[in-house]
Amino acid sequence: MQSNDARLLVYALVPTLAAGVVAVAVSAALVGGAGAVGAVIGTLLVVLVMGAGLVVLQQTAKNYPQLFQMMGLLLYSVQILLVAVFLLTFKDTTLFDTKAFAFTLLGATLVWIAAQTRGHMTAKILYVDPDSAEAKKAETAGSPT
Asked: Would you say the pTM of this structure is higher than 0.85?
């Protein structure tokens, strides 16, 4: 993983975990232990699904840039399906409070998306690799020897 990729992951991860801590505290205060467990599971689900998606998308951009847009659309569809499967699997659970889980899942997802967007907007990522062979070739062809 390149330093830009790791930085974007941290830009999204830290605020999401902070929002998760707030959600755990609020859920524990309002609902009790089951609410805190639901908030923890909601936060972890967002971090795992969105984090894995970001890593997969960055690897696709690096190895197969021509597939980047298609992979982004496929990835978001798969993320929604994974969360839907999780929701269907645990819809009648008593392990955690489902309302605390749902609100934390929604809040953490929105925080992740906002933080990732901000990270992309503030990152100074080169569009052209200055060390590429073509750049060096163009550089030597244009300079007098």
From this structure: no
